[in-house]
Specification:
CATH architecture of the largest domain: Alpha-Beta Complex
Largest sheet: 6 strands, parallel
Structural class: alpha/beta
Helix content: 40-55%
CATH superfamily of the largest domain: 2-enoyl-CoA Hydratase, Chain A, domain 1
CATH class of the largest domain: Alpha Beta
Number of strands: 16
Number of domains: 3
Distance between the termini: 16 Å
Number of helices: 15
CATH topology of the largest domain: 2-enoyl-CoA Hydratase, Chain A, domain 1
Radius of gyration: 30 Å
């Protein structure tokens, strides 16, 4: 009963992952028809959380614009904020660009909150669409809670000094920038324009380029002549879109746990296949996501140790000791996966729940293994001889394989080389191991596959 349920769940998980990949691919393939005119402007969206994925896309866009001879870059920004380290790197990339960089808060009802305020202030031209807002830049931790008092004072003072310097260099209002950090102040587009937080309020990118035509941006000293420029839009590639979905510490931790469970189930039930496939996919997706986050070496090492202990418990049950060690290692790995200064973290409650769930899973496997050893085989040795089955794991000269006979998986030996999927006939039984030989023409007493 348990194996078919897990197989169906695994099939559903694989299907959902494939649908996600196809949907992301379709979204990344969407392009817009560029306008025609003199000059070229590259338009790119910066949406969602400010994180290493947004940083990577920002750098790619700026590099492409410089290499392909574009005259300016327009970033369409809509963000609730995010990681301060990624924000700092995005600000540095915009400031270091030799091209004029627009940051246009859009679409209507969009926002430039928290880290988005810094990105807007770093731009050469700051603009907003009607109905957008900017502000609420008070630093908080990754769980949305206030920082400890001493750390909060240090972080706020550093942020105020950083953003007010950006404001003065670009002749923007430093008072609002400071208030957005200290008091979480927020402004709508029209108020932001009146207070010199942004230079323009425009309905779209074309209107923005027309409004800014002839302006000189500081501190780069560049004069803009882009009213009739050709607009070319670029979107994040497939890999970055997938990463954007995965860059969540809690999701990655869940994927890691699901991967370990799937692989462990495959080790204890060889030949079922789908739990192993789903587990492998989850495991690799977790590693893929962790590759772009500032994960600590100690946390990753503890997760690897947990996976090794769980695998050892599945292959050679140690009375639950190995599984218990794996659960403890998993818990500590989740808690230590990210440094406090990184801005990321796995929920302690999730880490505890996952450790308990993994321990319960392996206790269940251990009990099933003990019960199986105590129970007499439901099929007598004599009735198996002559039955046909299918190879699920090919036997070798030094290792038994697995064969599906009479609705069950059995260990199998053979003196003849055979491949997975090949039809066989049982010629003998030795304890719980079957002797088999090839029988592609078997038609009677065949077992279900």
């Amino acid at each position: 009963m348990f194996v078919p349920v897990v197989s169906r769940l695994s099939t559903l998980l694989v299907a959902l992952l494939l649908m996600l990949a196809l949907g992301v691919a379709a979204a990344s393939a969407a392009t817009s028809v560029p306008d025609t005119g003199d000059g070229r402007v590259l338009v790119a969206p910066l949406t969602g959380t400010v994180d290493p994925v947004m940083l990577e896309f920002t750098e790619r866009v700026l590099d492409r614009a410089a290499d392909d001879g574009f005259d300016a870059v327009v970033f369409e920004l809509d963000t609730p904020g995010g990681l301060s380290t990624s924000m700092d790197d995005i600000v540095r990339a915009i400031v270091a660009s030799d091209l004029p960089v627009y940051v246009y808060v859009s679409p209507s009802a969009g926002r430039a909150a928290s880290a988005g305020v810094f990105i807007t202030y770093a731009s050469d031209v700051a603009a907003m669409a009607p109905g957008t807002n900017i502000g609420s830049a008070t630093p908080i931790n990754s769980n949305g809670e206030e920082l400890p008092k001493d750390l909060r004072r240090k972080v706020i003072n550093d942020a105020v000094a950083k953003i007010t310097e950006l404001a003065r260099e670009r002749d923007r209002d430093p008072d609002f920038a400071e208030a957005a950090i200290r008091d979480a102040e927020n402004l709508g587009a029209r108020e932001a324009l009146k207070q010199d937080v942004v230079e323009y309020v425009a309905d779209d990118v074309r209107a923005l380029l027309e409004a800014s035509d002839g302006a000189t941006v500081e501190p780069k000293g560049l004069t803009l002549h882009l009213a009739d420029a050709k607009l070319e839009r670029t979107e994040p590639p497939l890999t970055l879109r997938i990463l954007k979905k995965l860059v969540d510490p809690n999701l990655l931790f869940l994927l890691f746990g699901a991967g370990v469970i799937g692989l462990a189930f495959e080790l204890t039930h060889p030949g079922v296949a789908l739990p192993g496939i789903a587990g492998g996919i989850c495991f690799l997706l977790a590693l893929f996501g962790l590759s772009v986050l500032p994960a600590s070496g100690a946390g990753i090492a503890l997760l690897v140790l947990a996976a090794a202990l769980f695998a050892a418990e599945a292959v050679a049950p140690g009375g639950g000791l190995l599984g218990t060690g794996g659960a403890i290692s998993l818990l500590l790995g989740g808690l230590l996966l990210f440094d406090d200064s990184s801005g990321y973290g796995v929920s302690p409650w999730l880490a505890v729940a996952m450790a308990i769930a993994m321990a319960a899973f392996f206790i269940f496997l251990l009990r099933k293994a003990v019960q199986t050893r105590r129970l007499a085989p439901t099929t007598s040795a004599g009735s198996l001889i002559g039955m046909a089955g299918t190879i699920r794991r090919a036997p070798s000269s030094d290792e038994a394989g697995a064969v599906f006979v009479d609705g069950e998986l059995w260990r199998a030996r053979s003196k003849i080389h055979m491949s997975v999927g090949e039809r066989v006939r049982v010629t003998g039984v030795d304890g719980l191991e079957l002797d088999v030989e090839p029988d592609p023409g078997a038609t009677h007493k065949e077992a279900g596959t």
